[in-house]
Specification:
Elements lengths: L1 H4 L9 E15 L7 E5 L5 E6 L16 E5 L2 E2 L5 H9 L6 E12 L22 E3 L7 E3 L4 H18 L4 H11 L5 H12 L6 H16 L1
Helix pairs in contact: 3-4, 3-6
């Protein structure tokens, strides 16, 4: 309420109130290796769908939306799992087979309008559930514009490198690494930035160099 009264949150904003809404069980045939799904969590054991890539396998399943809480995969309860564990579980599902997701829709409050599109008519509302869900430790969840295609591809490549070197996929971590390097002039500056922001991970030099290569390619496009 303090944020609302202080004009940090507008009445035209879209807010997810993550209390239990409608439950739904969805069967999906995994015809491709990639589902086009990005997972996040709130740090207390609840995983949510953060992003659905346009044109992806999941994008074609219109009953699955950004903001849905994933309760179980093929009957296995995943409450308590971190988002990268859920992502790994989904990635390991066999191609050519069907799987079942048990989802819970969040309660929604207020109408939807992207903050980055301020000034556009109120008729240009979000209603598709195909944008990006941003969860914050303080303040409300919000919907944000998806990044450019070049940035998205670079972050996905970094995410793949994370899996190669660390055995996990974490799109939030990959995004943080991209942001740390996008304005750096050389790999040494990038390495220093990584140490400042993500020093606890102790990334190997070879990995840092490979990530810098991805960022450099993106900057040249």
């Amino acid at each position: 309420m303090e944020n609302l009264l202080g004009s940090h949150v507008g009445l035209e904003d879209f807010i997810f109130a993550h209390v239990k809404g409608n439950q739904k069980e969805v069967n999906v045939y995994k015809s491709e290796d990639s589902l086009g799904l990005t997972i996040t969590d709130n740090g207390t054991g609840y995983a949510f769908i953060k992003r659905i890539k346009d044109g992806s396998l999941i994008d074609a399943v219109k009953t699955i939306c950004v903001g849905d809480h994933i309760e179980s995969v093929n009957g296995e309860n995943i409450i308590g799992w971190r988002h990268y564990d859920v992502a790994k579980k989904l990635k390991e599902l066999k191609k050519g087979e069907s799987f079942t997701l048990k989802l819970i829709e969040p309660k929604k409050a207020f109408e939807v309008e992207q903050r980055s599109k301020a000034g556009k008519s109120s008729a240009e509302k979000i209603g598709t559930g195909r944008e990006t869900l941003r969860l914050r430790s303080k303040g409300p969840a919000s919907m944000e514009d998806m990044p450019s295609e070049t940035k998205t591809k670079a972050i996905e490549k970094i995410d793949d490198l994370l899996e190669l070197y660390m055995g996990i996929q974490d799109i939030d971590l990959a995004t943080t690494m991209f942001e740390a390097g996008k304005d750096k002039g050389n790999p040494d500056e990038f390495a220093v930035a990584l140490d400042e922001t993500l020093g606890d991970f102790a990334f190997p030099d070879e990995f840092v160099f490979d990530v810098w290569g991805v960022i450099g390619d993106a900057k040249r496009e």
